């Protein structure tokens, strides 16, 4: 499958997706969204694929939603089509995926990166929610996901001033899982994704679901949800295999059953 604004390749069990609109620093227009929805659906449906990496270029992961596409839209246009709601289909991806961010991740670019299960940043990465400078606000989840990721003080400061945060501050603040040299970013992210792809697939789905539940529920309900999923994994062949492999001092051989 080929896409207009996205390069997709499979590296073993890892799907590598690269945003490819260099002339606009990967600004996220409707075509990019359509391509992302299709590529993530294909990834989720492909049994041979276990983890994905979404990246951009060395200069920009994505410099935001496409300002030129949005500039003349009216309230009726935006509300009528529920503009940006398509990203809910990207966040509905069930398998784990990583955002690998080099360069600018601004506005919608930062918001898209935060839709990932976690972010790995190159040391040249710059994150920001500069929408206020355009007289608007985050619109793809930034006010919610940034606040959950780094807390109110820094999220509010970033949204109100539009300032950028560099990779070191992003790591200190908990926005990114780790920082690596920019030139090694994609290889490092694929390496991490390959390690995740080698885990028992149902356990990986369950981990993702239960960590995400932490943002949607109370501690007590979240702990119950975790425990039920944990119990459920004892109905899988892979749990028997994983524990037998440990006892027999060998690697597990997963069936995904
Ligand atoms: C459309 C964009 C764009 C964007 C860059 N380009 N960002 N086009 N939408 N978000 C285009 C430029 O117009 C230019 O096209 C080309 O990409 C290269 O960009 P330059 O500005 O020339 O590059 P540079 O000088 O290196 O500056 C990089 C930059 C700057 C600092 C990232 O491009 C910038 O500030 N971009 C906008 C960042 C932003 O405000 N993002 C938030 C968007 S709103 P031409 O044709 O001139 O060569 C958003 C809202 C989400 O995401 C939800 C609420 C609405």
From TrEMBL:
Protein family: Belongs to the enoyl-CoA hydratase/isomerase family.
GO biological process, one term: fatty acid beta-oxidation
EC number: 4.2.1.17
Molecular-function annotations in GO: 3-hydroxyacyl-CoA dehydratase activity
Catalytic activity: a (3S)-3-hydroxyacyl-CoA = a (2E)-enoyl-CoA + H2O; a 4-saturated-(3S)-3-hydroxyacyl-CoA = a (3E)-enoyl-CoA + H2O
Sorted UniProt keywords: Fatty acid metabolism, Lipid metabolism, Lyase
Name of the protein in its database record: enoyl-CoA hydratase
InterPro entries listed in its UniProt record: ClpP/crotonase-like_dom_sf, Enoyl-CoA_hyd/isom_CS, Enoyl-CoA_hydra/iso, Enoyl-CoA_hydra_C
Function: Could possibly oxidize fatty acids using specific components.
UniProt xrefs under Pfam families: ECH_1
Record-linked CDD domains: crotonase-like
